[in-house]
Design goal:
6 copies of one chain form a homohexamer. Chain A is of the alpha/beta class. Chain A has 9 helices and 10 strands. In chain A, the strands form 2 sheets. A 4-stranded parallel β-sheet of chain A has the order 2-1-4-5, sandwiched between helices. Chain A has a 4-stranded parallel β-sheet with strand order 7-6-8-9, with helices on both faces. In chain A, helix 1 links the parallel strand 1 and strand 2. In chain A, helix 4 packs across helix 9. Chains in contact: A-B, A-F, B-C, C-D, D-E, E-F. The interface between A and F is large, with 52 and 52 residues. Strand 10 of chain E pairs antiparallel with strand 3 of chain F, so a sheet runs across the interface.
């Protein structure tokens, strides 16, 4: 089985970190292919960033679908789940976003969860996703550590700040689990959990395992109705693979 | 007052039709500027199309904000309200989507409304928007006429098919108003309403008038928190105006 | 176009203030007619007051509909939207309440709003209306300044108290807009907004502009089903125009 | 114990029928006093009728509260629960509406109920009340028999039509109980239930018994905050008891 | 009329207290039969306890249904309403849980209520029940006094602690009523209410009176569909009355 | 890794079938241990059956926790998820119900799913679970094939009936996936999916893979607050392991 883990931002070092997180949980027979988006923002911390990241996400999936060795599933490794619906139209195999995966997985650990994310300005998007996935009633709080995405890797205080933020969130909300709100936090989930004694869910691991589960069950999307392949048409100003005929 | 009415697809004839619909309701002192997206799909009929239309929408607003005569408000003239959140981050003036505008306006005409849209595959997006805007409880049905967006203009049966679809929807759902689910239907709202005796809301007119109302009241967005201007950063593979410093 | 702005309480000076607020935003060709309810409470600060204000509201509309120069639309200028459903049955043209208008308009400015109202005892009604209009999820808080309605005009501290209350609400709730919860605050919206740097929506202006927008679009209510004209019948103990035949 | 059962319309024969229904279920020591509203519509079949019925309802309670032998509780015997919030402000004892009572009682009989009401135009109000009381999720359908309120008593087909309507509703919705949507149907609940083998809840009986239960438990309203007694003020054009000082 | 009040735990002294509370409000002609569960936990303070209490509850009802003098109704006197759905399948007469009864009764006293329960760990179940009954929107808070169920009777501070907890809850939440979250608090409702000036609803009294009301109205469950009598089958390891043929 | 898959009914042949379904998807290093409940109904087709199955489920987990080789996770293999909350209190490792697992997994395949279950009388429970898990908005229909649980294995028409029922459900609801509503259908998921071209989710496979995913991520429940281990106490009439000290 091959799972393509797409980093919707263009920062290659982050792709590597994400792919490593995916590999660390994937089954022995599962190959993880990390893909860096070819265009868009270096990190995603606003609706604007997310909007500009979507074509790169979609392109990665179109290229993947056309390749000689297409993936058996895709993970979108940004907590805003950018382009998830569009991705589901163009992919003939399961696609899972990491916010989606983390929130669903956390829901299996008890009655409630809290989210700890990067910048406070992304809280609105996380609320919107929890609402969309039906899990807003289980989400007791969304908290920001105010470390920008690309500093997570470089800031020596990241682990400490996150441990504190997760502990505070768990105490304040009384939640049964913590969800990490950024793919860049993937490597810290187990460390934080060990420190605070609360299960901490990383979306990259959750997304990898959930999509691997779907493939193991032989589940492929229906690709009809709302999620049928897009009708071929002209896409002005966008290079291949978005041009006419791209999707057929 | 100048209102920029952005057509999120790249079909110029549709922009003209949209701008005409906006002009037909705007106040005497309001200038309507029709803007065609510079890149993306020729029409928007899927999540994929919508995803690829967003950069063009955002670019139009960034260029508008930087121009010598910036607009006092923007209307996003596609019923999927593509890029609305991103647009609100980069605009210092009100931005309204036509689905949003039409649904809010229809809510003022009674207790319920129904939507008549183009292709059935877009119903999911319309449901999602009604939910997001809080108006799903008022939306008693979403119906498709199965005429693609670009055929609305050219198909000689468009008016007849839409009259029938709107009448059926009003009868089946018992709704107090019909909302037209595509900017390309803007010129037909009054004709249909006259035929079926039910108020028919066109989002282009509604969007223009609602955003004109906001400007008249002197309301400008707060642009803080979630909707603060995006943090300047590198956008790979995207030409200006998306490059570093684009948003400052 | 003529818009009848009905003050549901019997305080004439407040009608004048309301009509002035409406005129300050109406289009050049729009005539604003302020109407003071002929019976009921001097101000509306309880369910009891609201209940007793409704016959006056309905009477004003019945008289309006029968007049030689009927209005093209009505605004109900009290934040409880008293008698809105009844008004919609008897009016053949659009009727909009100012709570409804303000909450819908505020929803176009971002993701969330807060309400600042007069007495704390009216908060329940505002919550109920937000729920009814589908906008409770966007309403992050309802706050009272504890100045009674009729003191808003006479209390020299009104502006200062409201500026403080609106600033606190915006900070505590992190909302994208403030909605003023009383028609008697109409003249202060722009002053407050300028002081606190947050858009402040006055319902009288919003109601006037939204209903003017509906008329500009040629939208008239369907007046069938639930909102059909009432069946003529005997109304004991109520003078004309409520007697038999009033509604035909 | 004395329970005042207020008929919000002005039709005395209906008051007698309602009082008889209340008496048929009240405990031996409970006195039922039927009160006919002194002003307003002869029957309530629209928002307009309901709006004009409210002052009479409120007056009946104000007079009751001031009487030498005030009631221990009030029942508002119209399925629109007109003036319920206002009544709760002016009454120092429990007030229950019959829609409220019937829906709550029906909820104790299983998972779901359906409503059978008079005219189709009242369905919207019933939906709104189910929503308000939190019971919309249990209400699987609201059906109209299209017999006007005052014909229920005189139309020889009433019983037959209602039996058919209730049976159809129970079958179509698969509900665990039927709620009768008009006080004028009170005497038929047991007959219908016997014919169709489904529990049929009459709101007059339910309201009487539920409010009797509250009194038996010694529960009196808190009358603070939103439901505190109204602030005394001038009520123009309304005779006593609504004048200044009425509520003190 | 005979009402069987089932204590789902096995503590006989608590059954006596519960039956006394029921008797204190029942009508003169209503016989209250207290039934102690024959198996399960001595008190119910967790999902585990509740799960293990359910067979005893169901057994009590099966035995009751088969007895020579079956009850006309059942009350389940534990605030978790254990086994309510199962009980409704096997009983041919109304069954009401005390959480259900208390929350519905409290809803008739105003717009909101708060719950004061025993241990904090039971709050989740109370939330779940409020949600299930449609009353979560009215429930403004659930508070724990942290006195275990069986200590309520023996702890000399119980009354004082509960008075304080109920007063705090009423003040913090601004609720119109307090609901006591344990059958073991039944005897204290009136005392607390007198001290704090807020109506305090005890579920045992509420359940007794509501179910007595249903019986007085002649309402018997439909017992079809989801709530039809269970299909006879083998129940391994469970003695009579659960064996094959138990339910026929 | 060892996963204990508990069959909440007492039919051993069904346990074998369930364990086989779990084994067919589990990772190579995962041992599946099928456990048949030691007491309770032979099949679960009512609230009554479910209530009586819960002690057996809980006992299986208590025994498991005390064993020398405790499992790393538990799956509750009945679509009513019987005893899930109680199980989570007594287990120190993840517990997942198959309804929960199947609905969450189906949610990752698109926007909507439909359920096909055994008897129509179980639809209410499935609705309740969808609501509880937050996924009711995604569940577009619940359909019964009216084959009892124990006949699924023996009825030669089972496969054909289920194929028809799933196809009809997918067509009528336009759903993106089908969820099978009984553990006894586990072996048919792939066959049905192949016939109808729609992904069909079996809860046993989904539960096994999701809980395996949680273990792979190192996630263990917090076991505090609502889900802390139960307080040791006396359980009358229940043999070990439920007696005092069982949970310590």
């Amino acid at each position: 089985m091959r799972i393509s883990v797409i980093n919707p931002n263009t920062t290659v070092s982050m792709t590597e970190q994400i792919a490593a997180a995916a590999r660390s949980v994937a089954a022995p027979g599962t190959e993880i292919v990390g893909v860096t988006s070819s265009m868009g923002p270096a990190s995603i911390e606003s609706h604007y960033d997310e909007a500009l990241s979507v074509p790169g996400v979609v392109e990665a999936i179109v290229r993947g679908e056309r390749s000689d060795h297409p993936a058996d599933a895709y993970v979108l490794a940004c907590f805003g789940d950018p382009g998830l619906d569009a991705a589901r139209e163009v992919a003939s195999v399961p696609v899972v976003g990491i916010a989606e995966a983390a929130m669903h997985a956390a829901s299996l650990l008890g009655r409630t969860f809290s989210v700890v994310t990067t910048l406070g300005r992304t809280i609105g998007r996380a609320e919107e996703l929890a609402e969309r996935y039906g899990l807003a009633g289980r989400c007791r709080g969304i908290h920001a550590c105010e470390i920008p995405v690309l500093e997570l890797e470089t800031n020596p205080d990241t682990a400490g700040v996150l441990v504190d933020a997760c502990r505070s969130a768990a105490e304040a909300d009384g939640s049964d689990a913590i969800v990490l709100g950024c793919a860049g936090m993937a490597d810290l989930a187990q460390v934080i959990s060990a420190k605070i004694g609360v299960p901490v869910v990383d979306g990259v691991a959750a997304g990898t395992l959930l999509v691997q589960s779907l493939v193991t069950m032989g589940l492929r999307p229906r690709n009809t109705g709302e999620l049928a392949p897009p009708i071929p048409k002209v896409y002005h100003g966008l290079l291949e693979p978005f041009g006419r005929g791209a999707i057929s």
